[in-house]
Amino acid sequence: MHAFNLQPKKLSLAERLADMAVDALIDEADLSPKPALVDRRGNGAHTDLHLGLMHASALSLWPAFKEMADAALEYGEIGLPLREALGRIGREGEAAMLATTDGVNTHRGAIWALGLLVAAAALEPESSVASAVTLRAARLALLNDRYAPNPFSHGAQVAQRYGVRGAREEAQLAFPAVTGLGLPQLKRSRAAGAGEQNARLDALLAIMTTLADTCVLYRAGEPGLQAMQHGAKAVLDAGGSASLGGRRQLHALDQQLIAMNASPGGAADLLAACLFLDRIERGDGLFPGVC
Ligand SMILES: CC(C)(COP(=O)(O)OP(=O)(O)OC[C@H]1O[C@@H](n2cnc3c(N)ncnc32)[C@H](O[C@H]2O[C@H](COP(=O)(O)OP(=O)(O)OP(=O)(O)O)[C@@H](O)[C@H]2O)[C@@H]1O)[C@@H](O)C(=O)NCCC(=O)NCCS
Ligand SMILES: Nc1ncnc2[nH]cnc12
């Protein structure tokens, strides 16, 4: 008889989804070289963030993601009770994140996007194509959480000032930046023979070409947003991050965004959402009969 049980513990669906959400956040943080964002090279345009903090923040969110998946399994349908449970768990997740980071906002947008997607995936595990999962997430995001506080967030301030759609609307529209740009680019770059890291960088850049990133707008206004969108397009037009021309453009974009203090934190969150959806779409041993 063995002194230890060597059988791997069988994880519940909620635990596996929480693992995948945290993995997506850690993969996003580690991906390098991302323009003006925290990565393995350094802190990008940030003075209060670093890679260790991004990792600690991602890990602190595991209980919230698991609880969101469990809530979806318990309620079993899209409706106000589930939406409001997700809101409460999301706010508790934000509090856990801020306690871990000493008050620095590392992943607010990611809690929102991945929380909705985790719940949407748990609701119908056998229906895991990205378009189906994001549609369920959108239906959840469209419901009005009566207990949501109404703070004058950075996103709300720039939405009012520039008339743009922010994180809330991105989810309510079923994540067009992810399903229409990030995921297709990820697949195109892989199919063209790019390595996985370059394919992921290209997916991030594809998201950056059109996203109204309220993080960039708050920090660097419209000139910052234009620099982000045009610069990302220039990298992809030059052949993407796996090409020499694309690499030069990427370096120039990194320098320009750092000089403008324009960190595309919203695009980074959506890349994490893209990596999460890619994982569940590909199965990764999670769901028996995918699609
Ligand atoms: C609905 C909420 C998302 C709140 O949205 P709102 O726009 O009102 O609030 P923000 O606080 O501005 O947070 C939105 C964050 O979403 C990311 N983001 C930005 N643009 C987009 C976009 N177009 N599409 C998708 N996502 C976007 C972005 O997050 C990243 O940036 C964060 C850093 O931002 P900021 O605090 O502004 O940071 P700094 O400039 O560095 O500030 P200082 O240094 O000065 O402090 C970083 O965390 C990234 O994550 C936006 O910040 C939602 O949060 C909400 O309602 N929550 C309540 C709970 C709930 O219902 N949860 C549901 C669980 S499913
Ligand atoms: N890698 C990153 N750097 C800065 N802000 C972020 N928000 C989410 N991911 C980020």
Brief summary:
This protein is mainly alpha-helical. It contains 13 helices and no strands.
Q: Can you characterise this structure?
A:
It is a single chain. By secondary structure, the chain is mainly α. Helices cover 66% and strands 0% of the residues. Helix 3 packs antiparallel against helix 4 and helix 4 (80-101) packs antiparallel against helix 5 (108-123). The protein binds ligand LTSJ6FE6 and adenine. Adenine binds next to helix 1 and helix 13.
Topology of this protein?
Layout: H1 13-30, H2 51-60, H3 62-75, H4 80-101, H5 108-123, H6 130-141, H7 154-162, H8 167-172, H9 176-191, H10 196-208, H11 214-237, H12 244-259, H13 265-281
Bound molecules: ligand LTSJ6FE6 and adenine.
Adenine binds at residues 28-29, 37-38, 44, 46, 49, 54, 107, 110, 263, 265, 268-269.
Catalytic activity: 3'-dephospho-CoA + ATP = 2'-(5''-triphospho-alpha-D-ribosyl)-3'-dephospho-CoA + adenine
Keywords: ATP-binding, Glycosyltransferase, Nucleotide-binding, Transferase
Enzyme class: transferase
Features:
291 residues; mainly alpha; 13 helices; 0% strand; globular; binds ligand LTSJ6FE6; binds adenine
Task: Report low-confidence residues grouped into runs of 5 or more.
Answer: none
> What's the count of strands?
0
Biggest beta sheet summary: none
Bound molecules: ligand LTSJ6FE6, adenine
Oligomer: single chain
| Average pLDDT | 95
Structural class by SSE content: mainly alpha
Shape: globular
Tell me the strand percentage band: under 5%
Q: What is the H-and-E element order?
A: HHHHHHHHHHHHH
- Which range best describes the helical content: under 10%, 10-25%, 25-40%, 40-55%, 55-70% or over 70%? 55-70%
State the helix count: 13
Radius of gyration: 19 Å
Distance between the termini: 42 Å
